[in-house]
Design brief:
Elements lengths: L5 E6 L2 E6 L10 H16 L5 E5 L4 E3 L4 H4 L4 H6 L16 E5 L2 E3 L1 H8 L2 E5 L3 E3 L16 H6 L1 H10 L3 E2 H6 L5 E3 L1 H16 L3 H14 L4 H14 L4 H12 L6
Parallel strand pairs: 2-3, 3-5, 4-6, 5-7, 6-8, 7-10
Antiparallel strand pairs: 1-2, 8-9
Helix pairs in contact: 9-10
Bound molecules: 4-(N,N-dimethylamino)cinnamoyl-COA.
The site of 4-(N,N-dimethylamino)cinnamoyl-COA has 22 residues, from helix 2 and strand 6.
Length: 254
């Protein structure tokens, strides 16, 4: 689609976005952010795309925001223009998203991986929030999503020291859903995504909504949201098809 810093394609109901700045460890430049947002807009409005996979290169998913672009930034323009704020767009995507992470996922790289619904990691993956080492704080959810994902002790240690977490530790503490050999990560992420793409889209959307909203509400409110979602799906043809297919001992056709 003619992008400079990313590549994108659609296969089997899956939109794949590949971060592609090989000379800069896929550092998240402003140009890259605009291109990711543009392709997300396209994927979201395209019925051919049911699920989105975000990936990088073998060496680096992304080594964080582009430090060379940030070094001279000043307070007022950063605040007034909500500098880099559009990266948050990944978290608000209503379609299911999977991060296929190999290599470094640092700073903003770790943060955009955590914005996805789940992470499948390569056995060479390294997650970290090294901002302390360059005189700043995480700015895209590192102190918040990481803490919710791995708990206070690990998040504090990682953010205060910049220590990287390897793939085995990330799986153990629940930051990633699975760890695979590097060459299997993207194919497996796409296969998982295309499996989800074949399920009921309204059901997938509501599952995502329930889990995400439940992360920010009380158990009682979360259970209420879940129950309303469950009831509402009785209004869809997919629920009828899914249940009838089970009874008929055949595959559902959504
Ligand atoms: N930015 C710019 N260039 C980078 C980069 C980065 N984050 N990371 C790597 N590069 C460049 C290097 O400068 C080098 O370029 P040349 O010198 O060849 O021109 C090239 O990529 C290869 O890197 P290295 O030579 O350093 O490679 P190594 O294998 O030795 O080390 C590394 C790989 C990933 C461990 C290392 O490059 C590294 O530590 N990178 C920086 C990691 C880092 O500090 N990341 C956090 C950045 S701060 C916000 C939104 C977002 C953010 C904040 C707020 N808002 C919405 C408010 C995010 C902030 C951040 O992510």
């Amino acid at each position: 689609m003619g992008f400079e810093t990313i590549q994108s394609r659609i296969e089997n109901g899956v939109g794949v976005i590949t971060l592609h700045r090989p000379d800069a460890m896929n550092a998240l430049s402003e140009k890259m952010m605009l291109e990711v947002v543009e392709v997300l807009d396209q994927f979201e409005s395209d019925y051919a795309v049911a699920v989105i996979v975000l990936t990088g290169s073998e060496k680096a998913f992304a080594a964080g925001a582009d430090i060379k672009e940030m070094v001279d930034q000043t307070y007022l323009p950063a605040m007034q223009q909500q500098f880099l704020g559009q990266w948050e767009r990944i978290a608000s995507c209503p379609k299911p998203t999977i991060a296929a992470v190999t290599g470094y996922a640092l700073g903003g790289g770790c943060e955009i991986a955590m914005m996805c619904d789940f992470i499948i990691a390569g056995d060479n993956a390294k997650f970290g929030q090294p901002e302390i080492k360059i005189g700043t704080t995480p700015g895209l959810g590192g102190t918040q999503r990481l803490t919710r994902a791995v708990g206070k002790a690990k998040a504090m240690e990682m953010c205060l020291t910049g220590r990287m977490m390897d793939a085995a530790e990330a799986e153990k503490v629940g930051l990633v859903s699975r760890v695979l050999p590097v060459s299997d990560v993207l194919p497996e992420a796409i296969e998982t995504a295309s499996f989800i793409a074949k399920q009921s889209r309204p059901a997938a959307r509501l599952i995502k909504e329930c889990i995400n909203s439940g992360m920010n509400t009380s158990l009682e409110q979360g259970l209420g949201t879940e129950r309303r979602a469950f009831y509402s799906l009785f209004g869809t043809a997919d629920q009828k098809e899914g249940m009838q297919a089970f009874i008929d001992k055949r595959k559902p056709n959504y």
